[in-house]
Automatic annotation (TrEMBL):
Keywords: Oxidoreductase. One of its GO terms (biological process) is organic acid metabolic process. Pfam families: PFOR_II, POR_N. The keyword Cytoplasm does not apply. The keyword Hydrolase does not apply. This is 2-oxoacid:acceptor oxidoreductase subunit alpha. It is an enzyme of class 1 (oxidoreductase). Gene3D superfamilies: 3.40.50.920, 3.40.50.970.
Length: 297
């Protein structure tokens, strides 16, 4: 919460384990989807990214730092215990291949006077660096554009919190990222994230071999959630399946955007054991069979 309110760039890595509490210690899970979004009190925006492999973790960590620096916001890297224990080969790129984004700095002393002001019209204030000679006020209490504390004026709080939200909302297209597989003619749409996306893709490929028009969308940015794109895809599909290693979390976001236009079904597994291609394929085939029966009726 302090980092959100002071617009301090940082990346928090959450390698999810099976819980609650100590739970299964080093076993993987995907139970922190909503903790990542609502892990602190008050109205606040957040960015959360979920990689699907070891190499993906490398690149998505870089993206997390870039987003954090560019938008002055904490970014959560939402990994899991399975990926955290996986050993895979990755290609380490030349430094020249990697885009690095640095925070926007004040151009002059006048800009530095407003470390929480929208001086450039993009809702992201310049951030002075320590040691640059500027005097900057920073507080976790409600503050004015110049950083001075003001917890008594409703308009000051309203203006500040609304700007924090809006700076993410207006840049959603730049922040959001997802991958799609076989969605052009999709009838059974899978929405999956993190480690569960890998067996989901395997199940979709196998279903296609069996003549079932399955497809997959994998949100890499899970907050802000790409609900608009999922709603667009839902207009093609007969049913949506949501495989995840919890008792139903991302599915609630899917349902929020799709509403009750088509069935949205959980494919859940807990206990520290990942979903398999066979687990998910079974649900795809069951959904295909139900769709055939409805069409016959």
């Amino acid at each position: 919460g302090y980092a959100v309110f002071t617009e301090t760039p940082l990346v928090l890595v959450d390698v999810q384990r099976s819980g609650p509490s100590t739970g299964q210690a080093t076993k993987g899970a995907q139970g922190d989807f909503f903790q990542a979004r609502w892990g602190t009190h008050g109205d606040h925006p957040i960015i959360a990214i979920s990689p699907t492999s070891v190499e993906d973790s490398f690149w998505e960590t870089i993206r997390a730092f870039n987003l954090s620096e560019k938008f002055r916001i904490p970014v959560i890297l939402l990994a899991d215990g399975i990926i955290g224990h996986t050993r895979e080969q990755i290609r380490i790129p030349d430094p020249e291949e990697v885009e690095i984004i640095y925070r926007k700095l004040p151009a002059n002393e006048e800009e530095a006077k407003y470390p929480f002001g929208d001086v450039h019209g993009d809702l992201v204030p310049p951030m002075p660096l320590f040691g640059n000679g500027y005097f900057t006020h920073v507080t976790g209490s409600t503050h004015k554009e110049n950083g001075l504390r003001d917890v008594y004026t409703p308009e000051v709080h309203d203006r500040l919190v609304r700007r924090l939200h809006k700076k993410i909302e207006v840049h959603e297209k730049e922040i959001q990222k997802w991958e799609e597989y076989y969605t052009d003619d999709v009838e059974i749409l899978l929405v999956s994230w993190g480690v569960s996306a890998r067996p989901s893709l395997g199940a979709v490929i196998e279903a296609r071999k069996r003549g079932i028009k399955a497809g997959l969308i994998v949100p890499k940015t899970v907050h802000p959630f790409p609900g608009k794109r999922i709603r667009e895809l839902s207009k093609k599909a007969h049913v949506i399946l949501v495989p995840e290693m919890n008792l139903g979390q991302m599915i609630l976001e899917v349902q929020r955007f799709v509403r009750e236009e088509i069935p949205v079904i959980s494919v859940n597994k807990i206990g520290g054991v990942p979903l398999t291609v066979e687990d998910i394929l079974k649900e795809i085939e069951s959904s295909a069979e139900r769709s055939r029966h409805r069409s016959a009726d």
